[in-house]
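Inverse folding, one chain.
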């Protein structure tokens, strides 16, 4: 009896364990399809098509939908619906681990990209990035950051793109995968080019060339380097790099890219016939972007040549292409705001995976109290700061006003002292424009006009006059000689008299030349000896402030 019972138990355990150890059938096919996905995606797709998804369990069906979405992307099969990936998302959000979720959100992003929904793609990629940080799967992390950076680049968010591609580059170096490293470096180069930073762009391109030996990639790199040199106007180097690409025997489409860059080079060099030759070749390209560029460039050449009718026709074709391209691009600003919102939401979901309900509740109350305390403290600090700032600004304004008043008083006192000083000079009695001052200290033009005799100053009087000017105006003549060593003694004397505002007629009488010659001499001193070419600045004004 005991032996019979024991045998029945063993039989039951055998029946229960064997199916769990080997599921067979669809499970094996899914494993095979997963193994072939990266190396032979066409075979993986054929295996998946052979499965009847309706007969699969919920778990196997979720995996099937994920693998089928990935296989379609890798085989460049158009995706018009997100129904398959949504099945995977629904299942793995409830039952999957961080790796399942990261991979599913990544391919959900790729599906959204294929369907031209960049906003949703960015949302999925950001969630995938968060889950990948938990999973520590470096290859998946690289792909997530690379495609997220590519999406930002296509929306002209170059700073965000560079940030993501540098993360991808860091991970690719951990993987020691030269292909991944090359793609990340190239994407950084493209983003820096978008920012008009050609120096950094060319730096990253050269790094990519050092890592990569693949012919197709080297052709692309040579062409893009040529385009960057066109951007900075070095057309000779641009053509040299394009010729390097052509030497590697590119495909037909890559050759069209070579032609558009060569056309741009010759256009910059004003060789319009050569430019037209290459632009016309590009019109047979299947790439909408290169064709659009070609029509636009041909329209510019037609306008330059005066064929405005043909230029208008070409621009109409270009605008049709541009409308098609623009319809595929959404507002970068809206996408970025959506990304910030969705990214924050994604991080909250991950927090729920890491913390249990009790710990989360405790932390919630702690953070709530801390936030409330911080708000109170911040508000008080803000009001204190604002009041202190007002006092500081008022004190600063008061001090500036006091300084300004003191400066005005000092200037007025300085003027009075100098006028009084010059009235006492013995030699100025020979200079009418310094003698004939009325009671208010202004010149008496009537008396001055009557003084037309020639004025003769001895060397001793000159020395005394210049010495007194130096005392009154802080070594004026010495500073003038030091600043403008080409000035001769006669010109220094003239500048000293101009400084104390001696009239032109007196200057003419002192130097025994006409007033017009004095004007000419002043102009030549200013232009030739002092190098001042601004016609708005006279020698009198300059010396007055010197």
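Residues assigned per position:
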């Amino acid at each position: 009896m005991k032996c019979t019972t024991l045998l029945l138990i063993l039989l039951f355990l055998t029946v229960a364990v064997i199916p769990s150890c080997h599921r067979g059938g669809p499970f094996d096919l899914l494993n095979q399809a997963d193994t072939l996905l990266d190396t032979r995606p066409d075979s993986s797709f054929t295996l998946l098509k052979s499965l009847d998804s309706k007969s699969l369990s919920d778990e196997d069906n979720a995996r099937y939908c994920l693998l089928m979405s990935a296989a379609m992307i890798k085989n460049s099969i158009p995706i018009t619906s997100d129904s398959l990936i949504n099945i995977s998302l629904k299942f793995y959000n409830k039952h999957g681990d961080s790796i399942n979720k990261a991979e599913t959100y990544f391919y959900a992003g790729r599906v959204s990209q294929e369907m031209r929904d960049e906003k949703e793609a960015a949302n999925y990629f950001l969630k995938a990035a968060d889950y990948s940080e938990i999973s520590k799967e470096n290859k998946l992390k690289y792909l997530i950051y690379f495609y997220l950076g590519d999406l930002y680049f296509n929306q002209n968010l170059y700073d965000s793109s560079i940030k993501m591609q540098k993360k991808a580059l860091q991970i690719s170096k951990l993987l020691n995968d030269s292909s991944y490293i090359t793609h990340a470096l190239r994407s950084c180069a493209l983003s820096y080019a978008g920012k008009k930073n050609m120096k950094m762009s060319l730096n990253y391109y050269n790094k990519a060339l050092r890592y990569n030996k693949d012919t197709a990639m080297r052709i692309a790199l040579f062409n893009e380097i040529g385009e960057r040199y066109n951007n900075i106007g070095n057309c000779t180097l641009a053509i040299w790099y394009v010729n390097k690409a052509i030497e590697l025997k590119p495909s037909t489409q890559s050759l069209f890219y070579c032609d558009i860059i060569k056309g741009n080079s010759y256009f910059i060099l004003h060789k319009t016939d050569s430019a037209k030759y290459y632009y016309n070749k590009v019109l047979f390209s299947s790439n909408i972007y290169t064709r659009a560029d070609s029509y636009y460039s041909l329209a510019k050449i037609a306008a330059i040549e005066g064929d405005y009718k043909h230029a208008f026709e070409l621009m109409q074709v270009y605008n049709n292409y541009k409308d098609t391209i623009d319809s595929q691009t959404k507002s970068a600003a809206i996408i970025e705001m959506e990304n910030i919102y969705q990214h924050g939401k994604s991080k909250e979901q991950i927090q729920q995976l890491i913390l249990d309900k009790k710990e989360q509740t405790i932390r919630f109350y702690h953070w709530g109290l801390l936030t409330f305390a911080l708000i109170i403290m911040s508000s008080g600090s803000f009001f204190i700061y604002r009041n202190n700032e007002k006092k500081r600004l008022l004190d600063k304004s008061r001090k500036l006003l006091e300084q300004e008043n003191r400066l005005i008083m000092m200037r007025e006192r300085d003027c009075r002292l100098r006028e009084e000083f010059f009235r006492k000079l013995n030699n100025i009695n020979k200079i009418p424009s310094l003698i004939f001052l009325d009671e208010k200290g202004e010149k008496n033009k009537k008396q001055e006009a009557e003084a037309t005799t020639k004025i003769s100053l001895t060397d001793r009087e000159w020395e005394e006059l210049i010495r007194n000017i130096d005392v009154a105006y802080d070594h004026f003549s010495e500073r003038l000689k030091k600043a403008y060593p080409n000035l001769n003694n006669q010109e220094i004397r003239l500048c000293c008299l101009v400084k104390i505002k001696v009239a032109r007629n007196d200057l003419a009488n002192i130097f025994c030349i006409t007033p017009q010659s004095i004007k000419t001499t002043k102009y030549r001193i200013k232009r030739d000896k002092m190098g001042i070419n601004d016609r708005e600045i006279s020698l009198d004004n300059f010396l007055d402030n010197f």
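The mean pLDDT is 81. The longest helix spans residues 357-423.
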